[in-house]
Each structure stands twice: as C-alpha cells, then as structure tokens.
Design brief:
The chain is an alpha/beta fold. The chain contains five helices and seven strands, in the order ααβαβαββαβββ. A hairpin with a 4-residue loop joins β6 and β7. The relative contact order is 0.13.
C-alpha cells in the first residue's frame, strides 16, 4: 500500500512549518511502499483533544516552570498560578501527604501532583479512571522538569490515587 500524496502533504505540514521548508519540497514519489499490515503514520498521530491545565506552584520554583514547559511542548494549554500556600491547594484536591511534590495541577476533574510525564497525563485523560488523580511523589531525578545534564534518571512510579485516598502504581519509569 502507498500513502496518497495528499495525505503525505497533510502529515508533513507540521514539519514544514517547523523547518521553514516549502510544501513543494515534499517528494511524494520517494515515499516507500508500506506493508499491508503496517500502521499508517496518520493513525499513529495522537488526536486526543486536551483540556486546559491549571498548575499551582510557588513563584520561585524553577523545576515547576520546566515541568510546565514539558507539558506545553506536548500540546497542553497551561495556566500557571503562583501561590504562597500549596498545602491548601493539595488539601482541597485530596492529594495525600505521602504523594506530595513541589507543584499541583488540575485538569478535567483530576489532580496531577509533581513531575508526572505528559504521556501519563494523556493516559489518565483517555482512560478516565474513578480516581482523584495521579502523582509522582517527591522530585524524582530525571523526571520531566528534573532532568540531569548527563541524561541520568532514577526509577520512579507514578501513582493513581483513588477516590478513597488509597493509591496503586499507574506507570513505572525505569532508571536510565
């Protein structure tokens, strides 16, 4: 199966916009044939519509700002709110003390506590579990916003916090 030239052009438009190339630069004749069971690129594109995220943080926390940038790069629209009392926000949203981190986000009825990867937030929104939210307790080295210059990261678990306050693993992130 071959990708239709119009479909290829539509898929390349974001690349064209980022690189400054012109649509005519896309050589549709050079598109390799795909196997019948191969997944077309268009199906692999995430078309999930993302709700607006509100992030509560302190004004001086640099890693919180880096996490917000990570979420924005992944397509989230983020509103940041600098607060003096994060504990009050965490209490209002039902974040267990053991799950606390340096910032708390709200999105579509859930909390997102700490340095949770954007892919985990997307999964939460897609699966819609009966829960308060998800949390990456503490500030795991190498998690989004806590990147190390040498690329190292520690293993960490993103926890799903149920409506009764109990928690269980939601996503595992290995050390690198």
């Amino acid at each position: 199966m071959r990708i239709h030239p119009l479909a290829l052009t539509l898929l390349l438009l974001p690349v064209v916009a980022c690189t400054g190339a012109t649509p005519a630069a896309a050589d549709t004749a050079a598109v390799p044939a795909m196997e019948a069971d191969a997944t077309p690129v268009a199906q692999a594109v995430d078309t999930q519509v993302l709700p607006r995220m509100r992030v509560h943080k302190t004004a001086t926390c640099g890693c919180c700002g880096k996490w917000v940038e990570h979420m924005q790069r992944d397509g989230f629209e983020v509103e940041t709110i600098d607060v003096e009392d994060l504990a009050a926000v965490k209490t209002r949203l039902g974040v267990p003390a053991a799950m606390a981190s340096c910032h708390t986000a709200e999105i579509d009825g859930y909390f997102v506590e700490g340095h949770v990867p954007a892919a985990d937030v997307r999964r939460l929104l897609a699966e819609r579990p009966d829960a308060r939210g998800i949390a990456a307790p503490g500030m795991p080295m190498g998690s989004p916003g806590m990147e190390m210059p040498d690329g190292r990261s520690q293993a960490y678990t993103v926890e799903l916090v149920a409506t009764d306050g109990t928690h269980r693993p939601f996503a595992e992130h290995p050390a690198r």
